[in-house]
Amino acid sequence: MPSKTKIFFACILLMLLVLVSLLIQGCDEGTTVVRNDGSAQPAGSDTAQSPGQNQGTGQALQQNQTPAVQEQQPAAETEEYTSPPPYTLEKLNEFLPTMDYLIGTDAPSSDVLAVTNMKTYLIFKNVETGEAKLTNEVENYKKADYIIVGSPCSNPAAADMFSKDIAQKGSCKIFPDGEGVIKLKAVSNNHFMLYVGGNNIAETMKAMKVVQYFSNYTLSGTEVRVRGTIDAPLISVVQN
Asked: Which site among 14, 153, 174, 188 is 20 to 30 Å from 197 CA-CA?
């Protein structure tokens, strides 16, 4: 009998615990929580913001953040050697035999032909002549004396020589149409170059023709412009 009484009271206690648990759960479902913005929300519901709200918050944070900007320093300009060349064109017969020819690697074949014709003629006249080289064969053309042949558009050494003119004009075609150019320029304390070329093939060939037959012309100063035709070039001295 005592054991049955204990079992009875244990069942009563268990039922009371279940009833209390149900009552507590019902109270929680009816409770509201006041949010920071003053609105009410049932307790136990998801308080996380919707994806749209999260995205808006992220965008606001991104807008408030100022990205670090690194100021780019302007590229340093190559210092140009401005001293006059050691010769003038009157002395072409003295320095021409000591100079090599420098042709653009991607230059038209006519530049190679013009140099070949000139070298052949000078050899025939028993005048010493230098070697012909391509620009990709020369690491630094300012370490020797070169005859720079061809347009600045196809000869990197010529483009470097006239870099300021190209920058000002915004084009590698910097010479007047119809004019070839013969120009002496020092590139260091020990070396100089002779430019012979123009904007295109015809103008380069005219200028090369004058240098090839230099004894037939009265050359002077450090720069000459060549007009006329390939068969009959006409020169004019530029007064610097």
From this structure: 188
